[in-house]
Amino acid sequence: MPGRRRILVIDHEPASSYMITMLLKLNDFDVDPYFEPESALSNFRKDLYDLILINMDIPEISGFELYKEMRKIDDKAKVCFIADQRARYADEFTALFPDFPSGRLADMPVTSEELLKIIGLNFANND
């Protein structure tokens, strides 16, 4: 039987990070939450995570830049982006991920059902 899926959550907002972490844990995911992107990047390892969940509104670094750096370490890492006002990132998202369904760029606040659906879409995608 395969192990539980492991998700890296990077969100600078403690309340949001806590709620996402608890939701995922209650749905049988292993979760490693980080508030600081530098710490998440320095602890990131190849083949450790099934999914990276990044809040695009992290003030220190663009979520896209953070993901690019992580892809240098693990080029198979899957990602799900969340953002306040996702429309702000839509053009950049499409340019960077032309074949990646835009539904995986989620608006905050996101409902539990929406987030679990988006995460499920990421796991269903084999690229």
List keywords for this structure.
alpha/beta, Rossmann fold, five-stranded parallel β-sheet, 5 helices, 40% helix, 20% strand
Describe this structure in words.
- The protein is of the alpha/beta class and 127 residues long.
- The protein has a single domain (6-124), classed as Rossmann fold.
- It is 40% helix and 20% strand.
- The chain has five helices and five strands; from the N terminus they run βαβαβαβαβα.
- A five-stranded parallel sheet has the order 2-1-3-4-5.
- The longest helix has 13 residues, at 14-26.
- The two termini are 23 Å apart.
- The model has no long low-confidence stretch (mean pLDDT 83).
User: Helical element count?
Assistant: 5
Say how many strands there are: 5
Q: In percent, how helical is the residue content?
A: 40-55%
What is the number of independent domains? 1
The CATH class turns out to be Alpha Beta
CATH superfamily: Response regulator
Poorly predicted residue ranges: none
Structural class: alpha/beta
Q: Give the name of the CATH architecture.
A: 3-Layer(aba) Sandwich
Q: Order of strands across the widest beta sheet?
A: 2-1-3-4-5
What is the succession of H and E elements? EHEHEHEHEH
Largest sheet: 5 strands, parallel
> What spatial form do the alpha-carbon principal axes imply?
globular
What percentage of the residues does DSSP assign to strands (E)? 15-25%
> Distance between the terminal alpha carbons, to the nearest Å?
23 Å
Give the overall average pLDDT.
83
Rg value: 13 Å
